[in-house]
Amino acid sequence: MKNIFVFALSIVLCSITGYAKEPVKVLIVTGQSNHNWEASSVILQKYLNESGLFVADMAVSPKKSEDMSKFQPDFSAYKAVILDYNGDSWPAATNSAFLQYVEKGGGVVVYHAADNAFSRWKEYNEIIGLGGWEGRNEKDGPYVYFRDGKEVRDDTPGRGGSHGKQHEYVVTVRDKKHPITKGLPASWTHARDELYDRLRGPARNMTILATAFSDESTGGTGRDEPALMVVSWGKGRIFHTILGHVGNEAEHPAVECPDFIVTFLRGVEWAATGKVTQKVPDDFPGK
User: Fold this and answer.
1) Strand segments (E) across the chain
2) Tens digits of per-residue pLDDT, 189-212?
3) Which of 71, 148, 214, 246 is the most buried (most CB within 10 A)?
4) Is the whole-model pTM more than 0.85?
């Protein structure tokens, strides 16, 4: 199985390499998470660097409960910041620098459990659009999902964030014109992964690019839940993907499959530049 994913990665990256005239500098912020960030951040960095489109640095926070006062990445040096972080609060100066960076046009990529983070940080919740867990409820905004092909904003009281058991599921494109999803198949089967549901938040200036059906048979909601989203905040562009669970298993199919790699790299490029120059590779599922 591992060899299949390695082959798929080589096909995807070979189809992408060469599009950028000069690699774009991006930063992965990591160091704490309820997921296996030690593995996921290295995988993301590998995809970014080997694509030929990006040069990816990594800012690793202190461990949980350690002194965070000196954790102050220079966001302004990068075109996009990829958040693979869910943990202790950052210092006030770092929060301020991050907001200033986004407000002035910095790109942000919210990866998987990063939408669990900082539930009491108002501006962060506006930037990610939707989030879950960490005490989120109706006070944080509506549930957002699709029903009968239309977006629904549901103010029903209840907790924010849940998922059923990991399984393969179908991702359906809802916005075929956005640069990230343009040219992708109308739907495809994603590898075994967590499927976040019951996400809720401000959801302002947010567009849902793709959804996934959260089947009740797997512990889901029976609704089409947001899977890929974009948000605007200030002058900043934000790409939010729920895909990509990485646990402590030996293999990580949710991030090793072509559809994750392609949508992640397209999302990073759009967040950083406002454009997507990458072709959809021939091995993309459903193509």
Assistant:
1) 24-30, 54-60, 80-83, 107-111, 143-147, 150-154, 162-163, 167-173, 187-193, 196-197, 206-214, 223-233, 236-241
2) 999 999 999 999 999 999 999 999
3) 246
4) yes
